[in-house]
Amino acid sequence: MDSYSFLSSTQNPKIRSASALRDAKARKQQGLFLIDGRDLTERAILGGQELSQIFVKDDEESLRELHSLREKFASRLVSCECYRVAPEAMQKLQYGDRDLGIITVAKIADTQLSTFADRVQARLVGRPALKHANPCYLVLDRMEKPGNLGAALRTADGAGVAGVVLADPICDLWNPNAVRSSLGALFTVPIAVSSEEEIQAYFRKAGIQIFTARVEGAVPYTSANFCRSHAIVIGNEASGLQHRWIAPDVQAIAIPMSGAVDSLNASVSTAILLYESKRQNTVNC
After folding, report:
1. What gap in Å lies between CA 92 and CA 89, rounded to an integer?
2. Do residue 196 and residue 233 come from a single domain?
3. What is the pTM of this model?
4. Which of 39, 72, 91, 242 gets the highest tally of CB atoms within 10 A of its CB?
């Protein structure tokens, strides 16, 4: 197997720099984030994510997994530094009591709204199954919980949305919990981050109808017409959309509730609405 530089100390600068990426401030400063585990690392590579470093635990099984990755993706890992890490130092990179054989440092990808359309089109190259006459976009407004964000990205990938836009997000897109819960969807779906005002202007200019999920929505979601280019906006987990996303050309839709509780989890609402959009564009349009 390949020989890698060996890092034994928890105080090694490379270990300390990488472990700091568990914190949002360090991610922003370094322009890097962490990917936990071999499977997510492979999905990141397949999604075109640029990797900077791979830390592998100094045991036979973990080294074998890294060797397999490097054989499979040799051309894509040419500039990626690989390090063999002593168990104690590897534990410093972990979150909680997790025991991972591989932890990867990756470069934060482009999430500018100005390049979003180009990235959406680039994703369609060679993947005609994703191309729809009436593309759907998911907008997550002030999403707060990393787990919900990751779950929504996974649903967006499964429903075949054209892209996801984060409006004034509270949680960090590159939070390790969001990365893990997305199961790799973070690397497959084009994502943009911007303000509510800029996103509304972007969709209006592109002729994309905006639908907002509201408890008080006048139209049941099953009556909404998704047979056109459209964006579905899901609000903050705790407070919904409140006064945001209100305009004459924005249509509010509701998921009927029969019990005492008046709203659903944000990721559940996302799944219901995205798959209704998918159903209409498969059956009706």
Report:
1. 5
2. yes
3. 0.92
4. 91
